[in-house]
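[step 3/7] fold_predict: job queued, chain A
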Amino acid sequence: MVQRVPFIVAELGADADPFMLHLYAALAEKERRLISERTKAALASRKTTGIKLGNPTNTVEAAAKGRKISIREADRFAQTVLPIIESIQQSGITSLRGLAFALNNRDVRTARNGQWQVSNVRNILARQSAAQL
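[step 4/7] structure written:
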């Protein structure tokens, strides 16, 4: 026997029936397709006028600049969070998992505004070790 589970959409309320949801999904799919078609048409139009899209002349330089900025931002973030990690370590929590758990409990967010994982803590500590060399 198949058991049905009620599906409630918060924005539509409990009265939204499957037919209504089907209509919303169909409209969303149509809008996605229209956006795709408009974007492709605009890009094709730009190409026919001879305009080159992107900047293929300095991709190596642009990538190097991007990496440099990413490293600088990661270093800056590490400097702001390392004192918190050191404080947690002084309280006796030294494992990567324990540090991640403690950071999450303190509502400290990662650089990308996410939850801490073991790999995030390891990367921050590795960055600190590399800076000390």
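[step 5/7] annotate
DSSP finds four helices and no strands in the chain.
The mean pLDDT is 90.
exit 0
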